[in-house]
Structures are given as C-alpha cells and as structure tokens.
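Q: For a teaching session next week I want to show students how multiple molecules come together into a single three-dimensional assembly. I've collected the sequence lines for a complex. Could you give me the predicted structure tokens for the whole thing so I can convert them for display?
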Amino acid sequence: MSKNKNKILVIGWDAADWKVIMPLIDQGKMPALKSLMERGVHGRIQTLDPPLSPMLWTSIATGFRADKHGIGGFVEPTPDGEGLRPVTTTSRKVKAIWNILNQEGWKSNVVAWWPSNPAEPIDGVMVSNLYQMANKALGEEWEMPKGTVHPEELGETMKEFRVHPHEISLAMAFPFLPNILENVELRKESKTLSVLKTIANAASVHSASTYLMAETEWDFMAVYHDAIDHFSHIAMKYFPPRRPEIPEKDFDNYHQVVEAGYRFHDMMLERTMEMIDENTTVVLLSDHGFHSDHQRPLYIPREPSGPAVEHSPYGIFVMAGPGVKKNQQISGASVIDVTPTLLYHAGLPVGKDMEGKVLYQCFEKPEQAKMIESWENVSGNSGQHDSLLREDPWAAQEALQQLVELGYIEALEDDKLQQVEKCKRENDYYIARNMINGGRLKPAIEILDRIFTESKILRYGQRLAFAYLSKKMYMKCQEVIESLKQIDAEEKEKRKNKLDDPNDPFGNVDYEEPMYLEYLEGLLNLAMNKPRMALPLLEKVQKKNPNNLQVATSIAQIHSMRKNFKAAEKQYITALAIDERSTVAHYGLGLTFLRQNKLNEAVDEFLIALEQDFFQSNIHYHLGEALAKLELWQDAVSAFQVCTRLTPGMAKAHKWLVEIYQNQLKNSKEAQKSIDFLKNNIKGEIIVCTGVDTCNHKEFLDLLSKGGMPIVSDASEETGERSSLYNTEWLEKATGKVVYVPSRQLSELPNNFSYKVIYIDQPIEQILPSRTARLKKKIPDNSIPLTVLNTIEKEKFIIDLWIESQPNQQVLILNWDELMESSDVQTNILSEYLNFNLNSNAVKKQIELLK
Amino acid sequence: MSKEYKITEQGSLGILALGHIGLRKWREVVNKEKSKRDEDKKNEQKQK
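A: Of course. Below is the structure for the complete assembly, covering every listed component.
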C-alpha cells in the first residue's frame, strides 16, 4: 500500500555539467530544466575521487564511500571465480535509500540504477541496469537476463518498452548527426552506431520509467540515465569550438551529438514533469561533470578507466518541491550528501555512520535532523537480497583459490586467474583513491603499498607517493618517487614504439606526457617547505600542461609562500582562466590581494569563492580580516561569526571577535562570549621568540635562561624537521615557556594556543656578517651583497605580515642594541611583558659577557 | 498531455521523449505501415 505522502523522484543524469547546460538554457534550448531550477534550488555537486560511475551512484544511493558500500569499480569476479562480470547489487554491503524506505513502509520504483542487477526484492519495482542492453539483432528474440526485473512477473510487460538501436530512424538520429541523411558512409561508422545505441538505451530507460510512474503506486522513485556520459565520451572532442587537433570532417559530422543529447534529456524531463504533481519532490543530479572547454584532455591514458580523465569534478544538483527554497543557487553539495538529505526530507533519521551531511541550505525552514546510530542495525524488511546471496565477490574468489590450493577443485587457467587478480588490484586501487579522497590515508597506504609491491604499475606508485605526501611521510614519498622514475624510464621506452599513429589525432607521444612524477616531486618540495626547489619543477610541468588547474594553483601557492604576491596573483589569474569557477583560485587570489592591502579586491574575490563554496570557514575568516581592515566592523563580525559557526574551534576568529567587540563596537556582552570560548579552549600560552635567520636568538634564549625563564630549544632542532609545528603534542610541552620559531615557520603555529611574541630586531649590519659567512662565499670588500640583503628584508617582511594578520597579538619588539646598552630598563620591560620576575643580576652578567 | 502529435513511420525524438505511450503509438504506426506495404506487395504480386 502506498503511504500516499509527498513523493520523492530522483533523476540521475550521468556526467551532466553546468558548463554545457547554462548556454543551452540561455538559448532557450532546455526549457524543462530551466523551469525546474526556477521552482527550486540548484548548484554544483562535488564528485568523489575516482570519478567512476558505479562507485559514485552507489555513494549517492547510500551516503557511504566505496570501502564501506563495497562497489569498487566496474567489474567483479563471477561466482565460479573463472571470469569477470559487471558489478552487481549482491556486492553492495550497505542499505541503499530504497532499502531504508522499504523498512519504513515506502513503495519504491528503481530504474536502471548502476548497479541494480540482479533486481532487489523491494516493495515496488526494480528494473536493473542490464534492462536496456540489446544483446540480439533486431527481429531476433531479445531475452532479458535473469534478475532484470522485480517482481519477475512484470518482466514480460517491461520487455515491450525496450528500444532496439536498429529501431532508431534517420529522423531520430538527424538532430544528433545532421549529415546522416545524405552521407551513407557516416551511417556505418562505429561512432555513429554508438550514438544510435545510446539514443535507444535512453529511450528504453525513459519508457520503462514513464510506464512505472503511470501504472504503479509509488512513494519514491529513482531513475538513472547514462546517456549524457556516453554521448560526451563519444563526441565531446567534437563539441564546438573545434580545436586544431580535430579533423574538420569529424567535427562536421559529430559536433551536434552532445547538444542534441542534452536537449533530448530535457524533452524527456518535460514529459516526466508532466506526470508528477506539485507535492512530489524532484532531485535531478549528476555524479560528476564532463570537461567541455579548453580543459578537454588532449590524450586519454591508455589504462583501465582512462576515459575518466575527461570527467570534471563538479556535476549538477537541482532540487524542487514542498519545503524547498525557490529559484536559489546553493553551494557546498557533495554526491555523498544526497542520501542524508533525502532521509531528512522524508522525515527519517540520518545514520550517524553515513559520511555525507544534510544539505540544510536547500530548505525553507530547516530543522535539526534526527539522527540514528546506523540504519544497518535496524531490522525489518529492507527489500535487500537474501544475506546468503549477498557476498563479497573478491572474498568468494579468494575462497575458491584456497580450494584450488587444497586440491579440492581444479586450478583456473593461468590467464583467467591473472585477469581476475589484475582486476582485483585495479578495484583495490580505486578504493584506495576513494579513501584518500575521504582522508583515510593509513588504510589507503596499506592497500597501495601492497598492490604496488605486487605489480609495478606507475599509477599505483603515483597514488602511493601522493598518499605518503598527504600523510606528511616525506621520506617514504621520496623513496617511491625514486622507484617510479626508474619504472617510468622503462615504460617510456616501450611506449615510444607503440605510438605515433598518423591516423589518431591523439596518438602522439607528446600528448602522453602529463609529467605526473615531476608534479609529485614539485608538491613534495612544496610540502617540505622548499619552494625554491618546487618552483622550477612545477613550472616545467605547467609548460607541458598549460590547462592544469592544480599546477597553476600550486605555483601560485609557492609564490605566496615566498611572499611574492605579484607573481602569485598572476598564477591565480592563470588558474581562473583555466576554470573561472575554481574556489581555490578565487580564494588564493583574494589572499594575495589581502596581503597586498588591496582590500576591496580581496573582499570581491572572497565573496565569489563563497558563492561557489559557502562552507569553507577559512574563506569567511579572511573575508572578516579584509572587512576589519576596511573598518567595516559589523560586516567583519558577521563573517567571523559564520566562521565560528562552521568551525567552532577556530580560535583566531574568536580573537578577532573579542578585538572588534571590545575595542570597536564596545559590546562587552558579545566580547565575553568569545573570551569564555578562548578561556575554555586555548591549551595554553607559549612565548614565541622570532627574528630573521641568524639573529642573536641563541644568545637571547641563553640570557632568558640565565634569568630563570624556562626555555624550550629551537623548534627545528626539537622536532627534527621544519614543518612539524602542527605537532601539538610537542607544543603542549612548550606552554609557559619560551621557544624560538624561525620567521618561515610562524604561519604554521596552530590556533589552539595563544602566543606572546618577542621579536628580536637587530640592525642589518649586525646580521649581515653571519649571513654571508653562512653562504661560504667570499664577498669582496667594499661591496654590498644585494641578494643577501633582499633575503633579510623578505624575512622581516614575513614577520611583519604574520604579526599583522594575527588578531589581538601581543608583540614586544626587542631592540638588540638597546638591550645591550641599557640592560636594567630592558630587563624590567621583559619581566613585565613575560609576567615573570627575571633574575636581573644574572641577566646583567650575561649581557656583560655578550658585549 | 495537451499537445497533439502527428506520428509518422520515421518517428521522432519527440515521440521517444513521450515515453511508453509515445513508443506504443509509434510502433503501432510502424506496424500499420509495414502491414500496408506487405499487403500492397502481395496485391502487386497477385496482379503480376
């Protein structure tokens, strides 16, 4: 029995991308989608890595990543372990939303979801993803594989709604292939046949869904279309504008395929919208986007899932219905958020174990979602397959192998076994990438380390190096990069012979050089705070990959680190020319403006970045900083408040709120809230002594020590490496003590401590001799070492910049000469500042020695 | 559905976009046209 409440309809358009859609909407070519957007909210939806559809659509339907939901790729072993088959529902380890709804008495129809074969025994109808696949010529008996339709008795009826590719007439194909009427040869081309097949598949899925919408009772319906992805893989390379590498003839024949594909989907959407009432909530989404502009890759890696390189990281999300905001753009959605959001909208609790979040920003009157530990523990008829049928296919394959080893069954033929093993490694690789994407680095490293040991495949090693890099295991990362260099050299030699096919516009060795190793090495140097070494590597990669967004933003980051803001600005602008929607680039550009005191420009960039992704607390923080510098106090407070709502523990934002409320807005009540927060959350105070490199910090620390002040030695010496100030365990030991932090490490100091800074200000002529001596280079007498001077100036600039960007920061500028000359006065100043009674006699004695 | 469609044997994307109803109607037209052609062919052969 249908509960006849507000229905929910989810429509999946694999690979749909706003970059293609928006111009079509502007030209009036997608009216149905436009109307749906006006009725509800729309925005970008972030994909997961790797952007592979079966994994992603299962994440969409479950709220889990691949290692939890169990769908790790496109294929899995057959139950006999002798071969491979497309992934199945029996491998899914968690409940899909329709299983949860089943338990709650909802009737669901699910059409062609990937994967949905064999169809699950839900209360409703499930038509699997094998439904539309034509396996016989037109006119021959076109059987449906077992398990295609649940309930089975509906199978015969559903057969009628399948469209065979050979049924697609010239009139139907014409909008896709305008030359097909007069060009008979074109009709025989494999790309043409693929287009016809894709039209037929889309029509089959649509017909099955309209039939079920009209003829069955349902509360929830999910329909998945793979056709936009297929049209795009076939013909996005011919999408206008034509690139010089594309032969004119092919462009002429196939340039309309993608546009026609989108317009066909809009026509189907129009029909679907006619079949529902205003109480039905509609969610239309894609799992990833598809590069349609200058970011289209010039080569497709010759490896499994290589074509995924054409996918872009943002898909589309549209939601309309009762309680949903009207005609608004939203940001911050991820494919993993869909199931929690739908459960919330259905009035059901969200699993605490689910990895996504509720997209409250979609709703007119959002309320806190009810939570449940896990839907997996809730018993009742979920409409899943019998637990005996549900199994991990890879575990089953291993069990078979064990039986072979024990001699119970005959060994598989070598090539079959190798094929299955190869495939398992590939799936493990995808799952490890998915884990890295979700921040689970340790298990990802374990998997990648194992498969890279088993098979020296470059991309396994590259991801392993990347995982080590993300985990800050730099030595390990370096080791893997070195071994990859060797493998890469051998591979290149082999590849040389296979390429250079004159008929393949992309079969050119030049396109096969993404320079991932150099990129990794550049990132490693960047992470290890060696921007000087990172820069030339990344610039080399950029030369070869001028349209790579990450390379441009990494180079910009290097320039920012070196406080070369002009150069950083230029690179961020390059990044925005590659992708004008890049949040990272808008945010980075805003930061470079902020640091150059171009405050209005900075505010503009931060606001654009927030339009793309509202939930980045760092952007709100820096927006607040820019507004505070513009003395727009109330606006700055709003920005810092959003920031503390998004990241309650961000002490820096609370410090700003204290500063503004106390000193500008004179609102002690509000200031107190942040003061209380800081009191309860700041782990302690550390006295940071800083100055340019080779200043007399050692002498100063000695002096304080003699005066009785507890000292922790230099941060670099203590932790063994430069970028380890994030190690709060070590810093906790430093609370109430003095520690020297070099200028370059100041920005790494974490926010959950408060700092009192002593800045040793020494005249340049005192620093210069020790600095030139460190260079081990003889500077001729009477000459000024300009490079060294510039470096010292820069270090001073970095310190000033850091101090300036810290709200409420206490700083004592200690003039070295004054300390030497009037030790009594300076010792008193120091004692007062440190709130510690220094032994003035001991300090004085030490100063005498230093003189 | 308020629109009117003229369905031809060649069909159209619009017909496919109507879903199961459009598909059924179009196939009816195709089958009718095919039967008519078969019939004409038979008559032609008879006349010969």
